[in-house]
């Protein structure tokens, strides 16, 4: 049993030895795990206290890991961490062998730390705690932490890599594969997610990765081929390292403006493109966002949906500064794609035209010129009836709906009269209804 106690002590010391992945030591799961291991290394322990430390740790990992084992949780944390290792990758500087050697050691250390079995810790509690018979049954019934309650294998590159590490005898041997992944997909949260939302939690702004972003692809979007081609060409230019334009997507509601931007990300994710959705009310945070993204070996589209400003909004000035490109707001790896239903982004009132501003015309022109500050404006107009019915045909075919075309078109046009104007969104809403009706 001495050897087993030695394993617990060694895991405890190895947590202290983390330098590159030092942030993991301050993670709430690892903190509670270390508290348990450290207590078990005392000469005398109380079974009651040890059970409490154990359940605190298991509760924390259940709460944060969504049913994953300690080993899988630590692998997830490795890829979410920002540290000196990820910095040299972002800077395309892999000459620092000291850091690479330390990462190799720490990957193996983390493997050892996560390999302590639940049964070993329970045995240690029973032996060192001199437990009574009824206490022994309680200890043995404690929930294990070294198996997965939920284990879904996806086709994402990062999940495949994590699985290969999980099944590897020596995590350090995965270093080359990790480097290859980081170089293609990015480090930290940018390797884990393709889309983010800029939001606040307890007053602190951060990028929240979206677990299941809209899976729409460009091939799913019917019509607007010319508009899509403009946006695709601009995006490819951006990805290839050339100067590209910020784009304003203007047009009627439901015409697929937002879906086109989301589809662009899904199409070019493997080429290093990421999406950051920012509410127009948070555009004043743009400088903060740029500081996070600058220096990353990826390309980012800042996406602002439904852009329109009220009189005096601070975000108006912020966007104007962004588009004009101040010294700090210039970054070669960032573009802005915004959508709007209004030709003029700032609401104009009749009172402005009859006000007492000596240079009122200049003021009005300044407001109306904001859209011109985007390098390109791509217009999405409502389809005519012929184009709308083409969209209906494609959508029905994609769903596997086989009905007479005359009936399909007649019902679709009825739907338009009853509910909404012609648009791709209306077409999908109609197909949803039709599919449900036919399957009753």
Write the layout of secondary structure elements.
Blueprint: H1 2-16, H2 22-25, H3 28-40, H4 47-65, H5 70-80, H6 84-90, H7 97-114, H8 118-128, H9 133-140, H10 157-166, H11 175-185, H12 189-192, E1 195-201, E2 204-209, H13 225-239, E3 247-251, H14 257-268, E4 273-277, H15 286-293, E5 299-304, H16 314-324, E6 334-340, H17 350-353, H18 360-368, E7 376-380, H19 385-399, H20 405-418, H21 424-438
Parallel strand pairs: 1-4, 3-6, 3-7, 4-5, 5-6
Antiparallel strand pairs: 1-2
Helix pairs in contact: 1-3, 1-7, 3-4, 8-9, 19-20, 19-21
What can you see in these coordinates?
- With 440 residues, the chain is of the alpha/beta class.
- It is built from 21 helices and 7 strands.
- The protein has helices spanning 2-16, 22-25, 28-40, 47-65, 70-80, 84-90, 97-114, 118-128, 133-140, 157-166, 175-185, 189-192, 225-239, 257-268, 286-293, 314-324, 350-353, 360-368, 385-399, 405-418, 424-438, and strands spanning 195-201, 204-209, 247-251, 273-277, 299-304, 334-340, 376-380.
- Strands 2-1-4-5-6-3-7 form a 7-stranded mixed β-sheet.
- Strand 5, helix 16 and strand 6 (334-340) form a beta-alpha-beta unit.
- It is elongated.
- Mean pLDDT is 87; it is low at 349-354 and 357-364.
């Amino acid at each position: 049993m001495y050897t087993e106690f030695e394993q617990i002590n060694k895991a405890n010391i190895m947590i202290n030895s983390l330098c590159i992945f030092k942030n993991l030591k301050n993670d709430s799961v690892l903190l509670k795990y270390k508290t348990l291991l450290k207590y078990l290394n005392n000469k005398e322990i109380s079974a009651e206290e040890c059970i409490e430390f154990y359940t605190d740790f298991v509760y924390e990992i259940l709460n944060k890991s969504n049913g994953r084992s300690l080993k899988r949780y630590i692998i997830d944390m490795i890829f979410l961490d920002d540290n000196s290792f990820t910095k040299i990758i972002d800077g395309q500087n892999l000459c620092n062998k000291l850091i690479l050697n330390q990462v190799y050691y720490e990957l193996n250390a983390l493997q050892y730390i996560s390999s302590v079995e639940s049964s070993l810790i329970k045995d240690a509690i029973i032996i060192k705690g001199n437990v009574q018979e009824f206490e022994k049954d309680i200890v043995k019934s404690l929930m294990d932490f070294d198996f997965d309650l939920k284990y879904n294998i996806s086709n994402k590159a990062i999940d495949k890599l994590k699985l290969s590490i999980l099944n590897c005898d020596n995590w350090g041997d995965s270093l080359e594969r990790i480097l290859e992944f980081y170089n293609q997909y990015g480090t930290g949260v940018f390797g884990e997610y393709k889309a983010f939302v800029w939001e606040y939690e307890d007053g602190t702004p951060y990028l929240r990765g979206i677990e299941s972003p809209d899976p729409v692809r460009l091939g799913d979007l019917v019509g607007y081929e010319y508009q899509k081609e403009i946006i695709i060409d601009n995006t490819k230019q951006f990805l290839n390292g050339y100067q590209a334009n910020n784009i304003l997507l203007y047009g009627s509601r439901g015409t697929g403006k937002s879906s086109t931007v989301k589809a662009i990300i899904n199409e070019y994710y493997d080429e290093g493109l990421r999406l950051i959705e920012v509410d127009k009310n948070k555009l004043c945070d743009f400088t903060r966002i740029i500081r996070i993204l600058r220096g990353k070996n990826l390309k980012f589209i800042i996406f602002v949906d439904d852009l329109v400003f009220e009189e005096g909004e601070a975000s108006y000035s912020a966007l104007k500064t962004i588009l004009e490109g101040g010294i700090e707001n210039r970054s070669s790896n960032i573009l802005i794609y915004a959508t709007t239903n209004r030709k003029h982004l700032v609401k104009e009132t009749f009172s402005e035209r009859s006000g007492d501003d000596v240079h009122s015309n200049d003021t009005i022109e300044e407001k109306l010129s904001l859209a011109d500050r985007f390098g390109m404006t791509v217009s999405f107009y409502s389809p005519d009836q012929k184009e709308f019915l083409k969209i209906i045909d494609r959508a029905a075919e994609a769903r596997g709906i086989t009905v007479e075309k005359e009936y399909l078109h007649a019902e679709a046009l009825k739907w338009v009269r009853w509910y909404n104007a012609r648009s791709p969104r209306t077409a999908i809403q109609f197909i949803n209804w039709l599919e449900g009706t036919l399957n009753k």
